Amino acid sequence: MSTPKIEIDRVGQTFRVRSQETGREQDFVALDNVSTTVRAGEFLTIVGPSGCGKSTLLDLISGLTTPTSGEVRINGRRVEGPGTDRGVVFQQYALLPWRTALGNVEFALESATDLGRKERRARARDYLQLVGLEGFENRRPGELSGGMKQRVAIARSLACEPEVLLMDEPFGALDAQTRESLQEELLQIWRRTRTTIVFITHGIDEAVYLGQRVAVMSAHPGRIREELAIPFSAESDDDDVRATAEFAHYRHQIWTLLRHDQQAAADRAEEAAHV
Amino acid sequence: MTAVTEKRAAARAAAPATRRSGLSITPLTFVIGLTPLVLVLVGWQVFGDPVDFTFPPPSTWWEATKLMWASGELPTALTRTLWTFALGLVFSVVLGTALGWLIGASKTVDRALSPLLDFFRSMPSPAIVPVATIVFGVTIRMSVVVMVLALIWPVLLAVASSRQNIPTVRLEMGRVLGLSGFDRMRKVVLPSLLPAVMTGTRVVVSQGFVVALLIDIIGAGAGIGRLLVVRQQSFDAAAVWALLVIIGLAGLVANLLVSALDNRVQRGWRS
User: Fold this and answer.
1) Beta carbons of A90 and B173 less than 8 Å apart
2) How far apart are the CA of B201 and the nearest CA of chain A, in angstroms?
3) Does a structural domain hold residue B42?
4) Domain-located, residue B37
5) ipTM score here?
6) Which chain B residue has the Cα nearest residue A160?
């Protein structure tokens, strides 16, 4: 078997935080001994309650932060910092308001590639077309809807042709309809490009619909609790996959996992209150 | 006195109109807006007493202007004031942006510099003039130093708060896309600060003439404010009225230019 695309090897991340009750500094364990691997071309979704460290995990893969213990490897090489082999799509789009849609995509190419001005423009156009924004090239972010902004951000990441696309709740701020159509289009893009995708969400439906595999995380400390392979998964072209009994089965399984976790957390809190 | 009030009112009315709507006022509406002022001046010319000691009619202002121009007093004073204003503006904006950037980017720098900056900021600019004169003499350097100490604050404060408010993801995006530290500053941070720089610059321009003239009037400058005082002391009312109009026009033009620029930036930067 070849080397996995991404290896997360016994990664731990601890922050120093000031306790609200005592005012003293203490360690907060955001991630505790997390290990998993992602194959090349795989679509992995990570679902978990807020505060379970899923965004922290993504920051570690992108290289924005370094783990307290363990390491992350891409193609067998240890991640030391950000690199253009990995693209990141943020929930808040992070577009530059003074540049047009086209300008925002070109912006990524200016630093990530050594293309000339004309080639950059042509490639930026291609990728805007890929995300369905033909005709909106010269609009500024202020003149685009939330869904369109996120399309620009996706085009910007894809234009650098990264090996891995990291998405941090990218559709979290969008309305339900826009979210569904973007999910569908993301799958189409993934099928076409076969980019390895790690997608973070707190929506169970979204995780099951998109992922070939779903990693369910639990909080305090952040751990991967279970990984489920989704057999029908992102491969199927069946539009109404959400209505199948299989879909419901996996959704329920994840829901149960998350709920137990929540229950346990509530019990712990109660216990602590009695002490 | 009427003319002064009218002129100020016209200038004030013009500025907020452009700021409020983002629609720049057209030349036509601007001319129409000046009508009351024109009417007052015409009335003054027609009904005024040509030898009045305090209210000489506008035609005499024009004569006084020509005399001051021919004698070389007016060109010298005007150049001096415009240079003081321009240098004060550039240094305030550049230094204000640099300091505001540093303070906004680092809590340590903010904490280290805050007491010092608060001290300078609370110092009224007229109080700085005598000290600056002792240090630099009656030179343009002195005037510029006073200008900067008085005017740097609006830029500095706007830029510092704007730097603090740049979304974290925007900076992370720069890192993720592999921009060098210099490129991140040049292509992400600096443009993000531009609207704040423009807002500050607008305030600097509108207050810049006040401070430039103040330095002259306190007696430590050689610009148009000095000329104003000299003419007033030699009871040349026509020249005083004429200088007032010139100062008003210069201020109006500078304000219109900077608000047009500001509006453009604010429009392009809206997210």
Assistant:
1) yes
2) 19
3) no
4) no
5) 0.86
6) B177
Instruction: Pick the residue from chain B with its C-alpha nearest to A62.
Output: B176
Residue numbers in B near A141 (CB within 8 A):
271
Q: Determine, yes or no, domain membership for B120.
A: yes
Facing residue for B175 by CB, picked from A64, A108, A142: A64
Sheet harboring A69-74: ordered strands across? A25-38, A6-18, A69-74, A77-78
User: Closest to B167 (Cβ–Cβ): which among A62, A94, A112?
Assistant: A94
Supply φ then ψ for residue A57, to 5 degrees. Answer: -60, -40
Domain that holds residue B95: 88-266
Q: For tokens 């720098």, what's the residue?
A: B109
8 Å CB contact between A31 and A12: yes
Residue that the structure tokens 């992995």 belong to: A44
- CA pair distance A152, A105, nearest whole angstrom: 7
C-beta of residue B3 within 8 angstroms of C-beta of residue B37: yes
For B200, the token pair is 């500050």
Residues of chain A with pLDDT under 50: none
Nearest to B85 by CA among B268, B242, B258: B258
Number of domains observed in the structure of chain B: 1
Q: Which strand ranges, in their side-by-side order, compose the sheet holding A213-218?
A: A86-89, A164-168, A196-201, A43-47, A213-218, A223-229
CA-to-CA distance for B108 and B105, rounded, in angstroms?
9
A81-128 pLDDT, tens per residue? 999 899 999 999 999 999 999 999 999 999 888 889 999 999 999 999
Q: Please, which pLDDT band fits residue B8 given cuts at 50, 70 and 90?
A: very low
The answer to whether residue B80 sits within a structural domain is no
Instruction: State phi, psi for A268 to the nearest 5 degrees.
Output: -60, -45
CATH number at residue B115: 1.10.3720.10
Check if B51 contacts A (Cβ < 8 Å): no
